[in-house]
């Protein structure tokens, strides 16, 4: 049942979320990617992807990632694109509609990122500024690393909670949940999927949900809208407004 996947906010993150006065939708989806599919995708990724060390958009450190879909267009190896199709069309999009109410969602980006010893070990706490919904699928066995994906609904480190992901498990959340990655031991690889609300938003790199939520009074939407206006458009006056 869908409700069985939901991470119960009041028991897991209650104090931090109540302090912020914000309700977060986040779901732990066990075996969203069945084990044989997860192994196939992990093997294809290791064989065909290049894991670029170009600067990451969050911290400007080497990203160690490679794209399979970008701006809604397939750009990765054909074998990997084919392997992802059942996951994206039959599970991710229907669940985003059912759980988060994203009725016309579009898979805008799909990438594989890895964290290796002597390379990338962390991804600082951040919001996925250009995605209305994020899905992170583990492509590693749980025993292969320590640490991993965490959520941090408020700025304090006391609010940080690690998400227990096994191979093929997924974590789905909305745009308003701060999260990050910290790997303390071993190696970790994950598939990251970003959805936008429509194909038009994806093709034109738009995030219209922020303005709607900001006008409605959501402080996280106000923050992210101001950040986008400053970073993407250099609009100081509009930034100051929010």
How would you characterize the overall build of this protein?
By secondary structure, this protein is α+β, with helices and mostly antiparallel strands. Helix content is 34%, strand content 26%. The protein contains 8 helices and 11 strands. The chain has helices at residues 9-12, 14-20, 35-48, 78-100, 199-203, 208-215, 219-233, 236-241; strands at 26-29, 65-70, 73-74, 106-115, 122-126, 133-138, 145-151, 161-162, 170-174, 179-186, 188-196. The strands form 2 sheets. Strands 1-9-6-11-4-2-3 form a 7-stranded antiparallel beta sheet. Strands 5-10-7-8 form a 4-stranded antiparallel beta sheet, with no helix packed on it. A hairpin with a 2-residue loop joins strand 2 and strand 3. Helix 3 (35-48) packs across helix 4 (78-100) and helix 6 (208-215) packs across helix 7 (219-233).
Describe the secondary structure blueprint for this structure:
Blueprint: H1 9-12, H2 14-20, E1 26-29, H3 35-48, E2 65-70, E3 73-74, H4 78-100, E4 106-115, E5 122-126, E6 133-138, E7 145-151, E8 161-162, E9 170-174, E10 179-186, E11 188-196, H5 199-203, H6 208-215, H7 219-233, H8 236-241
Antiparallel strand pairs: 1-9, 2-3, 2-4, 4-11, 5-10, 6-9, 6-11, 7-8, 7-10
Helix pairs in contact: 3-4, 6-7
The proportion of residues in beta strands is 25-35%
SSE series: HHEHEEHEEEEEEEEHHHH
Q: Helical amount among residues, as a percent range? A: 25-40%
Main sheet makeup: 7 strands, antiparallel
Strand arrangement across the biggest beta sheet: 1-9-6-11-4-2-3
Q: Regions with pLDDT < 50 over 5+ consecutive residues?
A: 1-21
Number of E strands: 11
Distance between the termini: 39 Å
Summed over residues and divided by their number, the pLDDT gives a mean of: 86
Helix and strand content put the structural class at alpha+beta
Given the C-alpha coordinates, what overall shape results?
globular
Gyration radius, in Å = 17 Å
Quaternary state of the chains:
single chain
Query: How many individual helices?
Result: 8
